[in-house]
TrEMBL record, chain A:
Keywords: Membrane, Transmembrane, Transmembrane helix. Residues 22-154 form the DUF1468 domain. This is Tripartite tricarboxylate transporter TctB family protein. It comes from Azospirillum melinis. The chain crosses the membrane at residues 21-41, 53-74, 81-102, 108-126, 133-157.
From TrEMBL, chain B:
It comes from the Bacteria. The lineage of its organism: Bacteria, Pseudomonadati, Pseudomonadota, Alphaproteobacteria, Rhodospirillales. Keywords: Membrane, Transmembrane, Transmembrane helix. InterPro entries: DUF112_TM. The chain crosses the membrane at residues 21-40, 52-72, 109-133, 139-163, 170-187, 322-343, 355-382, 389-407, 470-490. It holds the Pfam family TctA. This is Tripartite tricarboxylate transporter permease. Residues 21-439 form the DUF112 domain.
Amino acid sequence: MTHTLRSPRPAAFRLRSPQDLAAGLLLAAIALGGLWLARNWEAGSLAMMQAGFFPRLVCYFLLASGLATMFRALTADAPAALAWAWRPSVAITVAVVAFAALLDKLGLVLAILALIGIGGLAGRPLRPGPFTALWATLATACVAIFSWGLGLPLQIWP
Amino acid sequence: MMDVFANLWLGLGVSVEPMNLLYCFLGALIGTLIGVLPGLGPTATVALLLPITFYLPPVGALIMLAGIFYGAQYGGSTTAILVKLPGESSSVMTCLDGNAMARQGRGGVALATAALASLFAGIATTLVIAVAGPPLAGVALAFGPSEYVALMLVGLIGAVILAHGSVVKAVAMILIGLLLSMVGTDVNSGQMRFTFDIPQLYDGLDFVPLAMGLFGLADIIINLEETEGRGIEPSPIHRLWPSWQDFKDAWPAAVRGTALGAFLGILPGGGATLSAFSSYALEKKVARDPGAFGKGAIQGVAGPEAANNAGAQASFIPMLSLGIPSNAVMALMIGAMMIHGITPGPQIMTKQPDLFWGMIASMLVGNIMLVVLNLPLIGIWVRLLRVPYAYLFPAILVFCCIGTYSLRNDVFDVVMMAGFGLFGYVLKKLDCEPAPLLLGFVLGPLLEENLSRAMLLSHGDLGIFISRPISAGLMAVAAGLLALILLPAFRRQREVAFKE
C-alpha cells in the first residue's frame, strides 16, 4: 500500500507503480478537461481577477501534481496490479441510481425495494424472509421519520 | 470581572427557568435524534425545525434553537463514529479515527470521548465568550482579505499533513476540492462554471451528496470488496467507557482542540471545519506515534470534536455582537431573531441583557444536558454496531439516499451522490485520500473571493501578504509547515511511520 523509497542503485526507467501512473493520468486529465472547459472564460489580471482566473490557476497546479505523480510511478514501488471490485461498485451505483429514477414515479416504498434489492447484490443477498422483514422495517421507519415526522413532501405509493 | 459573573448569573437565572430548561432539553433531544440521520447535518436540522420555534417566546425560541444546534452537531458525530458518514464538514475528521475505534470494539469509548471533549470545549468556550466575547469580536474585524487568504493557506497546507502517503497526491486532492467548489454561478461575473448546462448545478454542488458519496457509498463498496461480500464482522465490545489511560491520552488533545476552535470559530466562514481539520493535523504532529492516526487514535477523536464544538460555539460571538453570520446556521439564527423582532448587533447586550446572557448561559446548560442525555444512549448506539453488515449496509444506503434527497427534494442530488461514490472508490484504488478534498471544497469559495479581493485592494501587488502583520505571521506559519513537509528527512520519517 505504501511506497518505499527508491533504492540508490541506478535503475532503468521502468514502470514501478501502475497505481501512481493511473492516478497521475487521472489528475492530468481532470486538469486538462478543466482548462478546456475554462477556455472561453475571461481570466483578467492579478489586480482584476475574472471568472477564469482561479479555475486556470488551480488547473495548472493540478496538472503539475499529475505530472509529478506520473514521474513518481517510475521511482517508487507499489502494488503491481490494480484490482477492481466490479460486483460491489456496480451494484451500489446502479442501486442508488435506480432509487433516484423510481422515487418520483413509483414512490418511496417501491424505490426502497429496488435500492436494497439491487444493492443487496453487492454483498451476499439475504434470503427472502429476512429481506422482506428488512424492507418492511426500513420503509416503515422512513415513512414515519421523513414523511410524518419531518413533513417532507415524499411520494410514498405509486 | 465581577460584572461577568453577575451577568452570567443573570443569564443562568433566565436559562434555568423551568420552561426554558424544557425548551433547551427538547431542542437538544430533537436535534440529536434528527442529527443522527445521515445527511441531515446541523444546518438542515435547524432549517427543518425553525418553524416550531415561531410559537415560543423570543428567549425560549433562541434557547431551543441553540439546543437543536448542539444536538444536531453531536448527533452528526455519532453517525460519523458508528457508520462513518459525516453529515457536515466539521465531523469529517471524527470519521477517521472514531470509526476505526468503533471497528475495534471501542465505539462506546469513542462516543464517550466525543461527548466529554465536546462538553469540556463547550464550557470553556462559554466562559471565553462571557469574559471576552465583545472584544474578541474585534478579531473578526481585524481580518481583512489578505489575512483570510493566509489563514486558508495554513489550513490547506495543514491538511496535507493529515493525509497518509504521498504529499503530491494530497495536494492534488485539495486542488480537486477547489475545482469542485467552483461549480455553479460565479458570484462576481455571473459566469456559469463547470455547470454543463444542468440547471441543478447553477447553485453549485452541495456538501452532503459529495461527502455521502466519497465516504458513505465508497466505504460500503470497499468493505464488501475487502471481505468478499461478507461485510465487516462486528468486533466484540471490550469496554463501553474510557479507561483511565484513555482519559490521560485524550485530555491534552481536547484542551488544544478547544483553544484552536475558540479562536478559529470567531472568524466568519468555515470556522468549525477549519478548526477540526487543524486540530487533527496538530494532534498528528505532536503525537509520539503519528502512525496510530487513522487506525483508532483517541486523540484523533478528542481533538477535532473539542475543536468543532468550540468553533461552533465561538461562531455565536460575531453573530450576537456584530450581527455577522459566520455560517449558514448563524444566518438561520439571525433570521429567527428577526422574526421575533430582535436585531442582533452591538446594542443587543445593553438593550436586552436577559436575552444575550440567557442565551450564553443556556450554552452551558445545553452542553451539560447534551452529555446527560447522550451518555445513557451510548449503550444503545453501540448495539447498532452489532447488527450484521448484510442488514446494516442496505439500511445505510436507504438513509443516505433519503437524507440527500431531502436537501432539495430533487433526485438529481441522489444521482450526484452515486457518481461521487464511484469516484471515491476510484480514489481509494489510486491511494488518494478524500479528506483533503473536502477541506478544499469547503474553503474554495472563501479562498477565491478573498484572493481576488486582496489583489483588488493592493492593485495586484502580492507584497500585501507580507506587509500586513497578521497575514505575514500566518504566511510564515504556512511556509514553516511547507518546509516541514518537504524536508527530505521529515519525509523519510513519514514513509517509515506509515509503513506498518
